[in-house]
Amino acid sequence: MTASPAIARLLVALRRRAVLKGIGAAAAFGLLPRAARAGGLQLVPLAPNPEGGFSELWAVSGYAPGGGATLGGAAAKRLAALAPPAAAKLRIFHFNDMHNYLVSGRSEAGETHAMSQFVKRVRAARAKAKPGEAVLFLSSGDDRTGTGLDKLLGDVEGRGFVSDPAYVAYSAAGVDAGAIGNHEFDHGARTLKRGIRGHARFPLLAANLHGGAELEPGRDYAPAAIGVAAGVRVALLGLTTPVMKHFRKAADPGLAVASPVAVAKDLLPALAAHADVVLILSHCGFGEDFGPARQSDGWRFFIAEGDISIARAVSGLTDKPVAILGGHTHTVLNAERLDAANLVAGVPVLQAGAHGRYLGEAVLTLAAGRETRLSARLHATRRGDEESPRREREGDYDREFETRVIDPLQARARAL
Ligand SMILES: [Zn+2]
After folding, report:
1. Which of 87, 97, 125, 188 is 20 to 30 A from residue 215's alpha carbon, by CA?
2. Residue 7 Cα, ligand 1 centroid: separation in angstroms?
3. Domain 5-415 is of which CATH architecture?
4. Annotated domain spans of the chain
5. Which of 110-114, 196-200, 276-280 is least confident?
6. Ligand 1 center from residue 144 Cα (angstroms)
7. Nearest to 363, CA basis, from 195, 167, 190, 232
């Protein structure tokens, strides 16, 4: 997202006021509820996406930002008691800020089958995964607002909803979980709820989002989830940016976003105690605190507590591997390999550009529960509009997926 000068001035003023009062940034947002519930988190079983990588999956329930976080119940005990796999490989495909660019390109001839290229690669990896290798497919948010497919979401009052193209496509594509980004609210929280309930066959995660009248925590979204894939226990923690420009406060005035740093510190130890690896799906942006983030694609982004701050905050809270799969700032990170500069206090920070231009792939090797190796890179999507070696060819995308899933969405949007 971009920050207008007015929003930038407002945020600077808010911060100045907070500093004058001697309180931290989180409290400056007015976001931490006064009477947060302490402890007592439970795991609620979820049906994993049948096209995805998890054999078992639970949502964390009962969390309120600012409350304590201990995970109890039979499922948590069973997970905590499981021995870490002697040797395992976790292959993580990740993308962010797709903004409904399921197909991108200006003309029919120039179309790039972005999502179907992702699907081709993920399906191939899943088909050839050896025993002990898990393949996950994850979105770090801002899945809507950008293309003609948005028409299927209807208007911002919740009228004319036809379908949720991103969640329909991701479900069929085998996406295992996604973060809730700020642009998910562009068509109103009611529309988002319809999209999730009707079309998402994977959990949407945002641990610091609370107080809204429409989205029901525990039903429409969860703070975190823990899944088992090829014997590896993977905890997923969702975070969204507290920059409020796109949250349509008038439509849902109670909707609030707590400090991502505070919430991550709160939840991460409890998650790590029940998992072999913790992945933070962060729609908070690549950067530090309260200011414009690094520019990317010629756009300016404004962040509050970015992935660098989150990485520093969670570093050392567990000896299990932790990685941040980021989004929001459309930043191209680790294009060729994991850049040492993106290893922040020992926590790798990943992000895969935007608009379907890149699919991120990280491979984590574990031995007796310990991280032995992490590699990361981006796969650039082949383009439809270039006479170049990067031009898309027939075999670069999954034709069956394009015909069965994407084409009907396009046809319905065009008919509106
Ligand atoms: Zn965003």
Report:
1. 97
2. 15
3. 4-Layer Sandwich (3.60)
4. 5-415
5. 110-114
6. 10
7. 232
